[in-house]
Amino acid sequence: MIHVFAFYLFACVVIASGAMTIFARNPVHSVLWLILAFFNAAGLMVLLGAEFIAMLLVIVYVGAVAVLFLFVVMMLDIDFAELRAGFVAYLPFGAIMAIILLMEIILGVGIWQAGPIQFAQRAAPAAADVPNIQAIGALLYTRYIFLFEAAGIVLLVAMIGAIVLTHRARGGVRGQNIAKQNQRRPQDAVRNINQPVGQGVEL
Amino acid sequence: MTAFFQSTLGAPYALAWFLSTIIGILVIALPLMLAVAMIIYADRKIWAAMALRRGPNVVGPFGLLQSFADGAKVFLQETIIPTAANRVLFLIAPIITFTVALMAWAVVPFDVGVVLANINVGLLYILAISSLGVYGVVLAGWASNSKYPFYSAIRASAQMISYEVSIGFILISVVLWAGSFNLTTIVESQKGYYGFINGNGFNPLLFPMAIMFLISALAETARAPFDLTEAESELVAGYQTEYSSMAFALYWLGEYANVILMCALNAILFWGGYLPPFDWAPLYYVPGIIWLFAKILFFFFVFSWVKATVPRYRYDQLMRLGWKIFLPVSLFWVFLVSGFLMLTRYGGAQ
Fold first, then answer.
1. How close is the nearest chain B Cα to the Cα of A58, in Å?
2. How far is B324 from chain A (nearest CA, A)?
3. In sequence order, which residues have a C-beta less than 8 Å from that of residue B311 and are 6 or more positions away?
4. What does the alpha-carbon distance between residue B25 and residue A40 come to, in Å, rounded to a whole number?
5. Which of B247, B282, B301, B268 is CA-nearest to residue B90?
6. What pLDDT score was predicted for residue A80?
7. Measuring CA to CA, which residue among A28, A27, A29, A33 is closest to residue A13?
8. CA-based nearest residue in chain A for residue B17
9. A144 touches chain B (CB under 8 A)
10. Considering CB atoms only, which of A62, A71, A131 is closest to B131?
């Protein structure tokens, strides 16, 4: 009973906060609604028994991605009325996207339920007594190891690419050499002199 | 406790579970609030002693009731909300900080089996919850609609994200060693190094991680010398500038609850948690909770000691330490620990 209640609670909040993400007038509020949606999606994952995915969802999306969103949105001076100006013009395009996504979800569920082929393709489902960190680890590091590593390389290439593309070498920047700073001793910088009266200081 | 409610009082399972969880939460949260009040007093006393001052000594014997007097004062003050502030977010922000600081305690084991939620992703849960802590600060800075809090919020978010990365890697090396994310299992796995001593910190492979975790914990909780978010000489009071009354008090409580949590994590991950320091039978007669508290208090003393003696970092030095030193070293250490375990425990490269 409590399962059903929790499911509908989380699901309703996800949908409501997803809608509010779009409808909120203030971009910062949008991001906050998005965070609420992520958080409740994590709750749904816990209900499914996928606590590892749930925690990763919170750590990665709420803890890192959404913070960066918030960071950027907070500092931007966005005129939201201007952004909304093209709403009607882009509406057909958005509707097509939404319909395609909907069809894909329906198709996915349909394939899952139909056809005996899927059990041959799918790895055996994890036993209930194996924690799902172990289950995911065992699958990811044996059966899908090459795909997993390929995904890692793709991400690495993307990261290096982003850095290379946005990096601009600026001349005239005086960087700090920390090792040099730490090596500096008082005798290199300070000089004690016995200054005679009536003479200028030698610099 | 669920079994007690079921058998003795004849309650149905759902009700028994609900009641025992609520009681468990109260049993953790209320003493924690008391502990925060006393630890603020301890912080001020230690700090004063190191500066050759007396510290709080007027309210109650030895000034012991100072925190309660402060609490009462703050409680009776008027809550001022700046007219230009975003009202709702301005009030939600301190609540987030405070709630998040309490939530993480759910998975902390106080003794064998004495834990509110013994989940198998305990450490990930703590990481997830502590990554929420940044929102309290960022929202405060933005919602205040004022310059200094905003600067502070930007600093805080960059600082917390930077050090969370290296904390993540440090935790991974501990998890690799223990073979589990469950905090109780991690504590139990630290039993009997060299046959007589308890604690990952005595493992030469993990000792550098213990030091780095202590420093990262200072940065993560924005304590001195990394308290750039509240650097009073630059940013007035940082993100708390516009806050008054209970909203301000919630920040205070939340911050210190976080500090105690980080001390507890230090104790649990590296120094044996509720285990006695030596693997010697008579020491096990002392309840585990006392050992854990002793370790927490010791690390809190270290935190205060650092606060009293180390000058504040510059912001670029803070970032350099996080990204250019801690991140590569902790990443390398994950390789080192996993390689070592691969060769010794898991049977080498076959």
1. 6
2. 12
3. B225
4. 22
5. B247
6. 63
7. A33
8. A2
9. no
10. A62
Contact B299, B266 (CB under 8 A): yes
Residues of chain B falling short of pLDDT 70? 1-11, 348-350
Do B155 and B229 meet the contact criterion of CB atoms below 8 Å apart? yes
How large is the greatest C-alpha to C-alpha distance in chain B, in angstroms? 69
A122 φ, ψ to 5°?
-85, 145
Residue A158 reports pLDDT greater than 90: yes
Per-residue CA distances from B319 to A160, B137, B159, B160, B185 (Å)? 20, 18, 7, 10, 34
Helix (H, G, I), strand (E, B) or coil at B9: coil
pLDDT reported for residue A27: 81
The structure tokens listed for B99 are 């709630």
Residue B213 and residue B266 in contact, taking contact as beta carbons nearer than 8 Å: yes
Length of chain A (residues): 203
pLDDT digits (tens, 9 = 90+) for B99-157: 888 888 888 888 887 788 888 888 888 888 888 888 888 888 888 888 888 888 888 88
Residues of B in contact with A75 (CB under 8 A): 154
Structure-token match 């016995």, residue found: A194
Give A134-177 as a 3 state SS string: HHHHHHHHHHCHHHHHHHHHHHHHHHHHHHHHHCCCCCCCCCCC
Identify the residue whose tokens are 């009266």.
A197
Q: Rounded to a whole number, what is the distance in Å from the CA of B74 to chain A's nearest CA?
A: 29
CA atoms within 13 A on the CB side of B311: 3
Tokens of B336: 């080192």
Residue found by looking up tokens 């310059």 in the block: B147
* pLDDT for res A117: 56
Whether the predicted model's global pTM rises above the 0.95 cut = no
Q: What is the distance between the alpha carbons of residues B109 and B273, in angstroms, rounded to a whole number?
A: 8
Percentages of chain A per state (helix, strand, coil), in multiples of 5 = 75, 0, 25
